[in-house]
Design brief:
elongated; mainly alpha; 6 helices
């Protein structure tokens, strides 16, 4: 069960890491570099929090296997690497969409001036409609 959480955290970490390459472009397009980085730093906090959960879970899983005289197994480690590869490819495919969504979030942040208000606006009918328009 721990290994499943490790894989989930791995996907989150690498997906956000891959999407980080598009933040600079959004900052330049919107001419609001500081707001762009500030909004993305919230996502980086999620990634780093995932990392702080992932490492102890993985270490405990390996220690338990060693203690029970079970080979920690290359199969599970390969699945973690597969999750990493999947997240990186998914992140690369989502970069254009992420740029569009983050650009709109950066522009709306100038109006709402609050992350909770910005998130609530994103789930309203007008916020969803705004994301669908190019």
């Amino acid at each position: 069960m721990q290994i499943i959480f490790v894989k989930i955290f791995t996907v989150i970490i690498h997906l956000i890491s891959t999407l980080s390459y598009s933040v600079r472009i959004v900052g330049i397009r919107t001419r609001k570099i500081a707001i762009s980085f500030a909004l993305f730093n919230i996502m980086v906090l999620i990634s780093r929090t995932s990392n702080s959960f992932q490492a102890p879970l993985l270490a405990k899983w390996i220690e338990n296997n060693i203690q029970n005289n079970i080979n920690p197994g290359t199969f599970e480690i390969r699945l973690i690497l597969l999750a990493t590869t999947f997240a990186t490819i998914l992140g690369a495919l989502l970069i254009p969409t992420f740029q569009r969504v983050l650009s709109k979030a950066v522009n709306n942040f100038s109006i709402h001036k609050s992350i909770p208000k910005l998130l609530l606006h994103g789930f309203t009918k007008s916020g969803i409609k705004q994301l669908n328009t190019r």
